[in-house]
Task: structure prediction
Amino acid sequence: MKFFIDTANIEDIKKAYKVGVLSGVTTNPSLVAKEGVKFEDRIEEILKIVPEVESVSAEVTPDAETAEEMIAQAEELIKINGGDKNITIKLPMTIPGLEATRYLSKKGVKTNVTLIFTVNQSLLAARAGATYVSPFLGRLDDISEDGVHLVSKIAELFRVQNIDSQIIAASVRHPDHVTRVALAGAHIATIPYAVIEQLVKHPLTEQGIEKFAADWKNAVKS
Ligand code: E4P
Result:
């Protein structure tokens, strides 16, 4: 399973990229709005600082309601940073979103169908040609459903049906989500920087580092 970072925050993206485990970036209208910057400018900035990833998802804005409006936005987005091959157009799981996914995937543009909450939605997105499908596990957990179970059913479906769309486990809230979606067969987990830090840390690792340092200091003294 690969890691994407789920943010539009430049500092967090830079930190995660430097660690060397990053394969992509996902953004959404809420994440961009939180940054208080112009959408296209932020996507361009992101594309420039992560040249070696496979995908940077830019979501069509909520005012694009028809497939034509979504496609028109996508056609502007794919020109950013000189037609960067990493740009991935993120589209909502709606009828117009599927129509736009089909159109763009036929043109060779990478797509990510977002806001997936059922196995059937993932099948539709895959058949529309989505490069990526994004089930939101945390939001399912929030309503007392099992988000990881959804990811595992989608992984099973894609295996059985020989589908090559990649599953991005999204709305990941904590390290246990990461372990469980990796075991469930997600290709990618998109996670906030705070979760990357949590994945690194363990109290015994910290204690071990402190003990090595103390023993080393004592040995150097004697
Ligand atoms: C995924 O692409 C979304 O941006 C994201 O994971 C949503 O997560 P949230 O439910 O924490 O907002």
